[in-house]
Design a protein that fits this description.
The chain crosses the membrane at residues 461-477. The chain has 480 residues and is of the alpha/beta class. The chain has helices spanning 2-15, 17-22, 38-47, 60-65, 82-87, 89-105, 132-145, 180-192, 203-209, 215-218, 237-251, 276-291, 378-388, 405-419, 457-479, and strands at 24-28, 52-55, 72-77, 110-115, 153-155, 157-159, 163-165, 173-175, 197-200, 227-229, 232-234, 259-264, 304-307, 364-367, 433-436. The chain has a nine-stranded parallel sheet. The chain binds 2-acetamido-2-deoxy-beta-D-glucopyranose (4 copies).
Length: 480
């Protein structure tokens, strides 16, 4: 059986050499109220032919599931730890010891440490400008001390606005003026330590934040009016953006520094341009583009990249926009949202869903049919539901944007109910709501049933506590 699998893999590698050499990675974030069990996720990643994962922390459950999985792992060091690790060599050594060495010894194939996540975003107001580079240096020092610096490399996932081009032409690319010297120092350090530059590239955000952005330029179909830069011609933003970085590196003396695309993807909901059609078109376009192994005009060859992201996360901040909770190529319960051929393994038949997912009952919470829309209590209950659950699928041109007002209210109630594990108390809303066995889903609007979470203790502890209480009460009464 395994021999057959290996043979199939080998054959598909021969036909798609560049893909198998590099493989495609996935960003696995966990800002979710109901995470799929890590083992289920690892199995899903395997069956869909991923070979690398990028994490945003080093959470124990995730790391344990990756033991002996063969996946290349990029562990993350969150921004809120940068200050501590910047100021204390000891803290960096402890971090590496606990979050790298221990897992490497247990068979987790850690290859990178991501120091911070987009720490130089302009919205952070420079909060991490002083601490990121010292933290990077301390982590590198700790890796050397732990004897891991050959196999584990440091990097900083940076947003693409750390570089820019005043004319829009890639050849005019350079680092942002306010952080230019810092960037050059970091780039030199990465180069000195045989590490890579990691950048997150988002044509979707360009389209979202600039209504004049040419839509076709976000995609890979070659339909955009080209940007001509000397002898190079660009018809997609990704190539132009990556080459702007390459020019910036080149201009400062590091034109050959390896580059990792840390995040690339497209959300499916929460905005008029976030839908499954566009997401499919973008991600499939990207996969096809990179699987040719042609690279960009400035850097021919395979591209090392991690799709953003694997699974939707219902607890991400929506400060950047309502689309934030919808980046997954899989839904919260591990269903593929659209066909995506990764060019590897089984995926030519489309993505496979997570297996063995355990759902709660087929039950929903809706607005009682006899409640008139004029009921004065509605406004407060809706805003309560939406602020504690997730209403980002309601709104102009979103997946549930076509619901009528009653449907809208039911969606908010139900989302809150599901998020609270279908607790009856969570379907009251001052008596305005009721549960039903009829699925209210329509067309693109899914009223999903919540999944069971692994963490049984959170459910059993109260019952256990109650038992102890009854036992003590019994003891008290019988001794009196
Ligand atoms: C490919 O799909 C088949 C049938 O769905 C499944 O049994 C098999 O495990 C998959 N292969 C891999 C490598 O996941
Ligand atoms: C290891 O990583 C975890 C998860 O990111 C973090 O909570 C913990 O503080 C880290 N351990 C040390 C010793 O820094
Ligand atoms: C950055 O500054 C703006 C305006 O002063 C403020 O609204 C925002 O909360 C700040 N963000 C952070 C991360 O400090
Ligand atoms: C449904 O709710 C959304 C978000 O609160 C709102 O933008 C939209 O106008 C509502 N639609 C109807 C028909 O009430």
């Amino acid at each position: 059986m395994d021999k057959v699998k290996a043979m199939i893999l080998l054959l598909s590698c021969i036909s798609l050499l560049s893909v198998c050499v590099n493989g495609i990675g996935a960003n696995w974030g966990t800002q979710t109220s109901h995470p799929l069990p890590p083992d289920t996720v690892v199995q899903m990643l395997k069956e869909n032919g991923f070979s690398k994962v990028k994490l945003f922390d080093a959470e124990d459950g995730t790391m344990n599931a990756l033991k002996k999985s063969g996946f290349e792992v990029m562990v993350g060091l969150p921004n809120d730890m940068l200050r501590t690790l910047a100021t204390s060599v000891k803290a960096a050594e402890n971090w590496v010891s606990k979050n790298v060495s221990a897992y490497v010894n247990d068979g987790v194939n850690i290859r990178y440490v991501a120091v911070g996540n987009e720490p130089f975003l302009e919205t952070y107001n420079g909060s991490f400008l002083q601490t990121t580079f010292p933290a990077l240096q301390n982590v590198q020092g700790a890796l050397i001390k732990a004897g891991l610096s050959n196999q584990v490399k440091v990097t900083i996932p940076l947003n693409a606005d750390v570089y820019q081009s005043s004319t829009g032409k890639p050849s005019d690319g350079d680092f942002r003026t306010d952080i230019h010297d810092l960037m050059v120092a970091i780039v030199k350090f990465l180069s000195d330590n045989s590490a890579a530059f990691t950048v997150n590239i988002y044509p979707f955000i360009s389209l979202y934040s600039d209504s004049n952005f040419p839509v076709e330029y976000a995609f890979f179909d070659g339909n955009a009016s080209p940007v001509v830069d000397g002898s190079n011609t660009y018809t997609n933003m990704f190539d132009a953006n990556l080459d702007t970085l390459i020019w910036a590196l080149k201009k400062n003396g590091y034109g050959n520094l390896p580059i990792i695309v840390g995040e690339i993807g497209w959300p499916t909901d929460g905005d008029m341009n976030a839908n499954t059609q566009y997401a499919q078109r973008f991600n499939q376009g990207f996969m096809t583009h990179t699987s040719t192994g042609r690279g960009t005009p400035m850097r021919p060859g395979p591209i090392d990249a991690y799709l953003f992201s694997l699974i939707d996360e219902d607890e991400k901040s929506i400060q950047p926009g309502n689309f934030e909770r919808h980046w997954g190529i899989f839904t919260y319960d591990g269903l593929p949202k659209y066909q995506l051929n990764l060019g590897i393994g089984n995926s030519s038949r489309g993505l496979g869903k997570a297996r063995g997912v355990q759902y709660l009952d087929k039950k929903w919470c809706v607005l009682k049919p006899n409640i008139p829309l004029s009921d004065s209590r509605l406004a407060d209950t809706i805003s309560y539901a939406c602020s504690n659950a997730d209403c980002t699928s309601l709104g102009y041109k979103t997946s549930c944007g076509n619901l009528d007002t009653r449907g809208n209210i039911s969606y908010a109630f139900d989302n809150y109910f599901q998020k609270n594990d279908q607790d009856d108390v969570a379907c009251d809303f001052s008596g305005l709501a009721t549960t039903t066995n009829m699925d209210p889903s329509t067309g693109t609007c899914r009223f999903g049933i919540m999944i069971m979470v692994d963490d049984a203790s959170s459910f059993k502890l109260p019952q256990f506590g109650l038992l102890i209480f009854i036992f003590l009460l019994h003891l008290l009464l019988t001794t009196l």
